[in-house]
Amino acid sequence: IHSTTPTLEGKKISKYLGVVTREPILGANKSKIFLQDKDIVGGRSVASQKVLRDLRKTCLFELKAEAYRLEADAVIGVDLDYSEISGGGKSGMLFLVASGTAVKFKEE
């Protein structure tokens, strides 16, 4: 389970296992396609939306995998931040940072 909220309804936290983060980066070629995308339908870029959706899914999957390694029951307070690394006037790499707190729940 992962959630942007600091708690989960009906669950009591027994232990905070620490902050977990993942930072997948989209390479320069895909990022360039994303930034120069001309596939606009109804004011939305279909290709760019797919790139962002795939990046988010990858990032959240990796975040859950990190929590699983800690034997966590959930990750709470999940935050997603998108950014770009660029320089010299050239398109760079798009990356997403996901962070949250891995927790264990009390046995019911």
Helix content: 25-40%
Listing every helix as H and every strand as E from the N terminus to the C terminus, the arrangement reads EEHEEHEE
Query: How many β-strand stretches?
Result: 6
Rg from alpha-carbon coordinates: 17 Å
From the spread of the alpha carbons, the general shape counts as elongated
For the sheet with most strands, the description reads: 4 strands, antiparallel
Mean pLDDT: 82
Question: In whole angstroms, how far apart are the ends?
Answer: 17 Å
The count of helical stretches stands at 2
Structural class: alpha+beta
Strand content: 35-45%
Low-confidence blocks of residues: none
Description:
- With 108 residues, the protein is an alpha+beta fold.
- Helix content is 30%, strand content 43%.
- It is built from 2 helices and 6 strands, in the order E-E-H-E-E-H-E-E.
- Strands 1, 2, 5 and 6 form a 4-stranded antiparallel β-sheet that branches.
- A hairpin with a 2-residue loop joins strand 5 and strand 6 (90-105).
- The protein is elongated.
- The chain starts with 12 loop residues before the first strand and ends with a strand.
- The model has no long low-confidence stretch (mean pLDDT 82).
Keywords:
single chain, 108 residues, alpha+beta, two-stranded antiparallel sheet, 30% helix, elongated
